[in-house]
Amino acid sequence: MDRERRKLRELEARHFETEQQLETCSREEEELLLDRFKKQHDQLEVARKHFDDLEFQQLEVSVRTQSCWCNSTLKNGKDCFQSGFF
Known about the structure:
mainly alpha, 86 residues
C-alpha cells in the first residue's frame, strides 16, 4: 500500500511540474509539454483508481477480520464492547 501511495505521489509531482512548465514555456515547447501533460493526467487517473481500489480492498479485509473476531467473541459469551474491541 505504501509503495502504491509513493508511486501516486511521484506521478502527482511530475504532473504538477509539467503544469508549471506549461505556464512558462515557449510556443515551440507547448505542444510537446501539452502532450506530456495529457499522458501524465491519464496515468494519474489510472493510478488513483488503482490506489482507491486497493484501499477499498484493504478496508473490506479489515471489516471482515473485525467481524470474525466479534463473532468468535460473541460465541464465547462476550460482546465486542465488553472485550474492549471498540
